[in-house]
Amino acid sequence: MVTPDAPGPSDADLLRSHVAGDSAAFGLLFQRHKDRLWAVALRTTCDPEDAADALQEAMISAFRRAKDFRGDSAVTTWLHRIVVNAALDRLRRRPARSVSWPADPDALETLLAQDGRGEPSPFVPSARPDSIDTRLDVDAALRLLPAQQRAALVLVDMLGYPVAEVAAILGLSEGTVKSRCARGRARLLPYLAHLRGDSAARGNRPVTDAVSPEGGGG
Amino acid sequence: MSGLHHPEQRHPERRHPDATALAEYRAGLADGLRGRRLAAHVASCARCASVSDQLAAVSSALSSVPAPPLPDSVERRITAALATEAALATEAAHAREAGLAREAVPAREAVPAREAVPAREAGLARDAGPAIVAAPAPSKRRVRLPRPVVVASAVAACLVLFGAVYLFGLARTSAGPASSAAGSSVSSGRSVSSPLAGVAARAAPAGSEPAFFVTASGTRYQPATLATQVRAQLAALGTEPGSTNSGALPAAARPSSRTASAAPSSTLAGCVLHLTNQVPPRLVDRATYQGKPAYVIAVPGRVWVVGPDCTASNPDLISSMGL
What we know:
The complex is a heterodimer of chains A (218) and B (323). Chain A has 218 residues and is mostly helical. Chain A is 62% helix and 0% strand. Chain A has two domains: 12-94, Orthogonal Bundle (Rna Polymerase Sigma Factor, Chain: A); 105-212, Arc Repressor Mutant, subunit A (Orthogonal Bundle), CATH 1.10.10.10. The termini of chain B are far apart. In chain B, the strands form two sheets. Chain B has a five-stranded mixed beta sheet. In chain B, strands 1-3 form a two-stranded antiparallel sheet. At the A-B interface, helix 2, helix 3, helix 6, helix 7 and helix 9 of A face helix 2, helix 4, helix 5 and strand 7 of B.
């Protein structure tokens, strides 16, 4: 799991240096993985403030617990685990004080459905296959998922980690990870199926058909 | 597949698997007969084949959203927090090597070290948890402590007990709700080691300071920045964890010249020491949190925010987080 384009010491080297008292080593480790860890925190919490808090807590925690790292997983796996746990922990504590979280997921579903996109059929496609809309839709839809399901789906589908690694990060069996992802995909189907990713539109349903529902039969 | 020609082929609207079943099938989770049936169904049912395609589209849509880079502001904040951690760790290491030997000399005669260490460790471990105790407190180096550190830990343990005994005195005079918390701490302290209680009692007349002081920094604490703001306050007070060079009492016990500070009311003292499990706090700051009056209380590894009417029996806890 050493980042291939990162020259110099490996993650494990940096962590060892940190434990040995090198005051710069952990900062380098953070620099090396900050964007991925941020993505994990942000996608798991669905809230930039919570994500920032979670990431900071996680990094401080990792800093202090580094000497307990046994090396039975990759350093990145260990870091991811700490970040995911901090994010989930933050979500558990959030309902008492949050305002940014949609109080009622059903309300959001209704909103999305009213937008004419609650229809699971691929033949009623979005007229706006543009990436900002995709991002907004994905952001909104992810909030519909239970946190544990979202954590798994975010790691596998959004960030592209192998199931085996996600299982190691989350401390679950691979079967459980697959199951959570499958349920999450099914849950998101009504909201995201029309998006189809960037240019991954299927060959038998060209985008030109998609922009004009009425002319679909033409 | 030829052996699996089912009625649903003739009546495809019946017994369509739901999206979850199809998603599980796609994820390789449906095996045996169920898997074969699903495979046969999807192969022969246009509608379910379409749903299956849409499930692929969901994954594709998720993967198409680029991962946003870490915002600069967050990066600066975390980098600063890590730098603080690194400085504290260095400080603690230096204190262990240099400062402790100096303090150990007078302590060696007065304190029964072997009994004192568990008392201190129990007090911290109960509250702080294993994750947060790493760098700061020298006494948490559980494994094969060099002797000066053991003795210094004993000093620290003694001081914790001293604080509790002092509080007990406060609480008795006020007979407020604080008395239960402080009283129980004293009794637990005695059960750990009665010689220590004797040492603390003898020390009491000499040091007439309360267990901690309350600052009024006027900081407007906010949830997102609480940890950072607390660190800033700790830095302003010069209360580096593990720094033992400036005297016997824990740092928050010393008034700072830079910030207005005062001895706590017995009610507040009861509240604070109840929350900290009798560990003298590094910071008790009268301030605001989300615009409302609050006390912000910090020990190594944890911060509490409580309302102004906090008591030991009713802490009025607003927020709490690991530090």
